[in-house]
Amino acid sequence: PLPPTPLFWAERGAVLVSCALSCVGSVLLLCSQALWPELRTRPRQLLLYLSVSDLLSALSYSYGVLRDFQRSSWDCVLQGALSTFANTSSFFWTMAIALYLYLSIVRGSPTGSGLLWGFHAVSWGVPLAITVAAVALRKIGYDASNVSVGWCWVNLDAEDRLLWMLLTGKVWEMLAYVTLPVLYILIRKHINRAHAALSEYRPILPGAPALQPRSSIADKKLILIPIIFIFLRIWSTVRFILTLCNSPAVQNPVLVVLH
């Protein structure tokens, strides 16, 4: 097995800054929802739940980095359980938002309270069940920062650690890499087809010329969503694969910071 990954203060500082920015963004979104009821649309509600997950992740990661775990302990397990639940929930809510947009824009399907409750059941329930099982079976613990950056996750001493690494995050992460681009590409194609159909009536619609730049901006934003998600998440997947291969590159400072 690989030796523990040393964490320098510069790396810890970068992680803490990232966590602080995540906390600020999540709190601002929570406050805007509380202060302005007119902003409480269904898509923003879903984004709110995603922000709650990200806030919990950032807080748990911050504690892990500051605590500097050297072995499994009760607070290591607690922090690992919280980050596992929040991080897995974040993946589910991210995919839920993409699925909601696909159903409402492309399929035109009704997106009432039933769908929202389904999202709640899956995005909170599945991560909770996985986390409870992992804690009960003592799979959460010290991971030597080889698949994290200071915080606890799946105990590297567990014989079936690969299975639990997948269940507690990586399989959902990889699923999101495929699902998000597919859904957003389908949404973009639908918008382009609708815009092409509308352009046939452009000569008789005085406001139609303004639709082209707006459509282009929307297309760019749709493309950026999966690209940004993959760019931010891919580094943890890279370190996960390197850890499985027992590669010393997992301790590369650049990868550690990007993780």
From TrEMBL:
Protein species of origin: Catharus fuscescens (Veery)
Coiled coil: none
Recorded topology in the membrane: Multi-pass membrane protein
GO process annotations (BP): adenylate cyclase-activating G protein-coupled receptor signaling pathway; cell surface receptor signaling pathway
Cross-referenced Gene3D superfamilies: Rhodopsin 7-helix transmembrane proteins
GO molecular function, one term: G protein-coupled receptor activity
Membrane-traversing stretches: 12-34, 46-64, 84-103, 115-137, 163-187, 222-242
InterPro entries (alphabetical): GCR1-cAMP_receptor (IPR022343), GPCR_2-like_7TM (IPR017981), GPCR_2_secretin-like (IPR000832)
GO CC list: plasma membrane
Entry's localization field: Membrane
Domain G-protein coupled receptors family 2 profile: 11-167
Protein name: GP157 protein
Keywords assigned by UniProt, alphabetized: Membrane, Transmembrane, Transmembrane helix
